[in-house]
Amino acid sequence: MDAKLTLKLDKYVIDKAKEYASSHQRSLSRLIESYLKSLVDDSSDESNNDAEITPFVKSMSTGVNVPSDLDFKTLYRNHLIEKYK
After folding, report:
1. In 3D, which of 16, 59, 22, 58 has the Cα closest to residue 38?
2. What is the pLDDT of residues 34-67, one digit of tens each?
3. Do residues 35 and 57 make contact, with C-beta atoms less than 8 angstroms apart?
C-alpha cells in the first residue's frame, strides 16, 4: 500500500536529486523509497540490489569514527571548565 509523504528540503538538493533520478531513468520517489528501505531493511545488503546509495548521499557522511567508550559528559564538563576559567 502506497502512502504520501511530504518533505521539506533545500531547493538545491531537490534540483540535484531530480537531475540524478532523471539521468538514471528513475523517479525521485522511487529513489527516496529505495534509500529509506535500505536503511530499515536488515537484509537489504543481500536481497535488494535495486537500492543504490548515491554519491551525493555518501558525501554527506562525516567520516569521523567515534570510539564506543567515549565519555561525552566528561568531555563536555572539561570543555565548560576551560571555557569559564
Report:
1. 58
2. 888 888 886 645 555 566 777 777 777 666 777 8
3. yes
